[in-house]
């Protein structure tokens, strides 16, 4: 049983459209239901997402550019078919999480109100439902984990990516807004003085994803006839050593296939998301040449993102091509322990044998759609990439 929600800009997104998929279980293999064609479409249109498992629900959040709602709905319908399993995690056992049994499958387009939302697959904490309590346990994990339901009236989702923030957890007929953190060491007293001081990375991540998490909390809360209540309950898991543990999981959407095998069509009226800003704390590798214009830079950045990912990066590393209106291109790379100079040398070494050959025609088409320009011919593309990467002046 699955609910699909297409969330428009009116639902609080800063720009673009979003989808929330709620499942009555945890996906066995997150994102596995998507085809290579759908992954190629997601890359081309700038659609990204996370498989999210939080205390109150499990499923997906997906974000795309304005005008992408129909594509998002198709992706969400595919994710409905995920194989799911019961949640036997440490966190689910600790606060006794159980799914409701009357969740209805269906889809709903959200405009400016959540009125009329159907029954959702949400999870109740039997531990919270039993009344105010304090639970302190010592477990073989590296960090300490806190959940506190006392006097938390606000919400914070900017820091969810690093395991800190608020969420709404059903506790029977009502729900509790709790603070969860897995990155604060010390005692419960440290929670009382915890202030949200988002970093530059938090703001960058939260601009796109916090509104969707907030919308999901609102949808969970709407299922509770008793509304939101204060529950001065505390869970303190004291780490005694071991692996890092976080109550929430967020699995990012996968990269597209190494080689593009399908041509993606432009959607009238939809402008794909482009990477145009620096990601704080990420290795940035400026390309030595210039594309000559913002549009050509966007095209080159898209192509280099795919080419460098398959040619120069180790398994698990990710590359994002970033363009600027002045024609400059920067590659932002995660998952490597390289300096900027080392990265540039590795990239140029790997590109040397192929820089004067054209990528597959499907990739040329999709990169042009992504950049919002007419497709360039192979020779012009080769010359552009060679100039941007410094092989030609």
Order of helices and strands: EEEHEEHEHEEEHEEEEHHEEEEHEEHHH
- N- and C-termini, Cα separation: 58 Å
Mean pLDDT: 88
Number of strands: 19
Which bin fits the share of residues in helices? 25-40%
Instruction: Tell me the quaternary state.
Output: single chain
- What's the Cα radius of gyration? 23 Å
Order of strands across the widest beta sheet?
8-1-2-5-4-16
Helix/strand/pairing category: alpha+beta
Largest sheet: 6 strands, mixed
Describe this structure in words.
By secondary structure, this protein is α+β, with helices and mostly antiparallel strands. The chain contains ten helices and 19 strands. The chain folds into two domains: 3-252, no CATH class; 283-388. The chain has helices at 36-45, 69-79, 90-94, 126-129, 189-192, 200-222, 294-311, 340-351, 361-371, 378-388; strands at residues 3-7, 17-23, 26-27, 48-53, 58-64, 84-85, 97-99, 106-110, 123-125, 134-141, 145-148, 164-170, 175-181, 228-229, 234-243, 249-252, 283-286, 318-323, 329-334.
Question: Secondary-structure map with pairings?
Answer:
Elements: E1 3-7, E2 17-23, E3 26-27, H1 36-45, E4 48-53, E5 58-64, H2 69-79, E6 84-85, H3 90-94, E7 97-99, E8 106-110, E9 123-125, H4 126-129, E10 134-141, E11 145-148, E12 164-170, E13 175-181, H5 189-192, H6 200-222, E14 228-229, E15 234-243, E16 249-252, E17 283-286, H7 294-311, E18 318-323, E19 329-334, H8 340-351, H9 361-371, H10 378-388
Parallel strand pairs: 1-8, 10-15, 13-14
Antiparallel strand pairs: 1-2, 2-5, 3-6, 4-5, 4-16, 7-9, 11-13, 11-15, 12-13, 17-19, 18-19
């Amino acid at each position: 049983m699955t609910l699909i929600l297409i969330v428009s800009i009116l639902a609080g997104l800063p720009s673009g459209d979003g989808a929330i998929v709620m499942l009555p279980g945890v996906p066995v293999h997150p994102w596995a239901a998507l085809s290579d064609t759908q992954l190629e479409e997601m890359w081309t249109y700038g659609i990204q997402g996370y498989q999210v498992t939080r205390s109150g629900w499990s499923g997906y959040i997906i974000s795309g550019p304005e005008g992408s709602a129909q594509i998002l709905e198709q992706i969400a319908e595919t994710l409905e078919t995920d194989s799911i399993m019961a949640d036997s995690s440490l966190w689910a056992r600790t606060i006794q999480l159980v799914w409701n049994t009357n969740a209805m499958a269906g889809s709903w387009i959200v405009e400016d109100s959540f009125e009329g939302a159907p029954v959702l697959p949400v999870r109740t904490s039997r531990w919270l439902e039993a009344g105010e309590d304090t639970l302190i346990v010592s477990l073989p994990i590296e960090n300490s984990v806190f959940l506190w339901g006392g006097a938390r009236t606000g919400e914070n989702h900017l820091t969810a990516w690093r395991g800190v923030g608020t969420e709404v957890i059903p506790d029977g007929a009502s729900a509790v807004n709790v603070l969860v953190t897995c990155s604060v060491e010390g005692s419960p007293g440290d929670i009382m003085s915890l202030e949200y001081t988002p970093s530059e990375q938090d703001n960058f991540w939260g601009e796109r994803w916090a509104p969707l998490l907030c919308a999901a909390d609102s949808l969970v809360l709407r299922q509770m006839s008793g509304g939101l209540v204060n529950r001065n309950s505390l869970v303190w898991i004291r780490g005694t050593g071991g692996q890092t543990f976080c109550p929430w999981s967020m699995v990012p959407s996968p990269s597209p296939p190494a080689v593009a095998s399908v041509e993606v069509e432009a959607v009238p009226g939809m402008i794909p998301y482009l990477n145009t800003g620096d990601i704080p704390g990420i290795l940035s590798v400026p390309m030595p040449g210039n594309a000559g214009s913002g549009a050509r830079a966007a095209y080159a950045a898209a192509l280099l993102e795919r080419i460098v990912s398959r040619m120069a990066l180790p398994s698990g590393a990710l590359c994002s091509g970033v363009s600027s209106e002045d024609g400059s291109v920067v590659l932002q790379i995660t998952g490597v322990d390289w300096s900027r100079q080392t990265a540039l040398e590795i990239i140029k070494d790997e590109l040397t044998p192929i820089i004067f050959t054209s990528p597959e025609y499907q990739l040329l088409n999709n990169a042009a759609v992504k950049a919002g320009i007419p497709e360039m011919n192979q020779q012009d593309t080769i010359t552009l990439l060679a100039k941007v990467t410094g092989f030609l002046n």
